[in-house]
Specification:
heterodimer; A: MetI-like fold; B: about 260 residues; alpha/beta; Rossmann fold; six-stranded mixed sheet; four-stranded antiparallel sheet; 7 helices; 10 strands
């Protein structure tokens, strides 16, 4: 255990093995039926079988599409409005009270209304993800743009940059690392919003897959679905983090 | 003598008064300031800290408008907004951290309409002049403080400004680097001959670099005296330099003889 690379591989495995062991021991000790808590092994079997079904890929596709579309829209709107708030004092004064009062109405509070307005279609989910992502982005973009080193603004102005060029090529560029870390947080929030909305009312998606499995008492499928949600969420976060590190490291 | 590439112009402050609004009260920083810097002259502005020297630079650059009075460049009123005749360097390098040294020089040239090829060629030329050609692809966080400051000055000069504005550009570097940078700047100014307004709180620097010294008072600042500097007074080893130093310091209320202070 003195080899640091070996340790870096082994220790996380020890942690994971411990969790699985406690899980297995709980099932055995309390003699829990499959419906209440299946064994790790039966969950693994279900998980491995999932990619073989067309329904699974359709559900993954729907959830990822709803997330992706909402994330893109929320990012564009949030960064645009946030930049305007950072650059333009009058707009900031008008927009701040609206943003501040709406942003504490968490996305989940909107789920009943979105179902009322858009039914169980993907439109409501996209709207919800857009909303969730927008508020994370607008607040941190405005703050980041506002806190750009004033010296950099002065440098841009004495070079001869006008207001638009200054906003685009100095302020947004200088704020980009902060905006990128907000983008990573927004990805997590957006993914949570999709799944939550699908739990409550959807015609397809991972959330629906899990609620369907639960109502037919297929508990291994419920847990397998939860693991898929976790894996996709971690994957999205890793991709955003990788883009941040490789392109915005200053 | 080199043929000047770009002719400097005359910068004039005419009866400038300026107030800042802070915490609901107007603070007066400049009070009826008038002086002019003839074309191609290096003027060093000295005075106590916080006396409004940087405000004067901001007025010359068109970064702000005075409360009263006018600033003129070649008899034309300086307007607030992008002004293409100026180049400016600050106490901190203020380099864009996402750009290489070369891109930092090129971006201003591109803003002023140069083609990409022209901008890169000029950037390389000026990085070479400050001895940093090897570092043209380095990012600011890979440069030492002195090197970054050189890039900042090269960036201002690369615009070949008719008016060069310097806001204590050597105040944040160590004493030895400061002397080297002063020499380099002198050599560059001889070559390009812009009109220069150099703000500093270092009186010896003002004598070493300036053709004239503008001595400012405490806030609200007025012009106490304008002192011309001759070539021989610039020689730090001369008695004339010592006399000029004493004269300028006396203006600022500092006695040169510590034993009788």
């Amino acid at each position: 255990m003195t080899n640091p690379r070996l340790r870096a591989v082994l220790l996380p495995l020890v942690g994971a093995a411990l969790v699985v062991a406690i899980w297995q021991a709980t099932v055995v000790l309390y003699q829990l039926p499959m419906v209440v808590l299946p064994t790790p092994w039966s969950v693994v079997k279900t998980l491995v079988a999932l990619p073989g079904t067309a329904m699974f890929w359709r559900d993954v596709g729907v959830s990822v599409f709803e997330f992706g579309a909402g994330y893109a829209l929320g990012m564009i709107l949030g960064i645009a409005v946030g930049t305007l708030m950072g650059e333009w004092r009058l707009f900031r004064m008008a927009a701040t009270p609206v943003i501040e009062s709406l942003r504490f109405i968490v996305p989940f509070a909107w789920i009943p209304l979105t179902i009322l307005w858009f039914g169980t279609s993907y439109v409501g989910k996209i709207a919800l993800v857009t909303y969730a992502v927008f508020f994370v982005m607008v607040v941190s973009t405005a703050r980041a743009v506002l806190h750009v080193d004033p010296l950099l603004s002065r440098v841009g102005r004495v070079m001869g940059m006008g207001a638009w060029q200054l906003a685009w090529s100095v302020h947004l560029r200088a704020a980009a690392p902060t905006i990128a870390s907000a983008a990573r947080a927004a990805a997590a929030v957006g993914w949570i919003a999709v799944v939550a909305a699908e739990y409550i009312g959807a015609s397809a998606g991972l959330g629906l897959m899990i609620t369907n499995a639960a109502s037919s008492l297929a508990t291994p499928a419920v847990i397998a679905g939860m693991i898929v949600i976790g894996l996709i969420g971690a994957g999205v976060s890793a991709v955003v983090g990788w883009i941040t590190r490789t392109h915005l490291d200053y | 003598m080199n043929t000047p590439l770009q002719q400097g112009g005359e910068l004039a402050f005419n009866a400038i008064s300026h107030q800042y609004a802070s915490a609901g009260r107007a603070t007066s920083v400049l009070d009826d300031v008038s002086f002019s810097i003839p074309a191609g002259t290096v003027a060093c502005v000295v005075g106590p800290s916080g006396c409004g020297k940087s405000t004067l630079l901001g007025l010359a650059a068109g970064l702000l408008a005075p409360t009263q009075g006018t600033t003129t460049w070649d008899d034309t009123k300086v307007r607030v907004g992008p002004n293409h005749h100026i180049g400016m360097a600050f106490q901190q390098p203020g380099l864009f951290p996402w750009m290489t040294a070369r891109q930092n020089l090129a971006v201003g040239l591109r803003t002023r309409g140069a083609s990409r090829a022209e901008a890169n060629a000029t950037a390389d030329e000026f990085l070479d002049l400050v001895g940093l050609s090897e570092f043209k692809d380095a990012y600011p966080n890979q440069l030492s403080g002195g090197m970054a400051q050189r890039v900042g000055i090269a960036r201002a000069l690369a615009l070949r400004p008719r008016l060069l504005l310097l806001d204590e550009p050597f105040a944040a570097v160590d004493a030895f680097t400061r002397l080297k940078l002063q020499q380099e700047l002198m050599a560059l100014l001889k070559r390009y001959r812009p009109t220069v307004m150099f703000v500093t709180h270092d009186v010896s620097e003002a004598i070493a670099l300036g053709d004239m010294i503008v001595v400012m008072s405490q806030r609200p600042a007025t012009v106490l005296r304008i002192i011309p500097v001759s070539r021989e007074e610039r020689n730090r080893a001369s008695a004339a330099y010592a006399r000029k130093l004493a004269e300028t310091l006396a203006c600022l209320g500092v006695t040169s003889d510590m034993d009788h202070a």
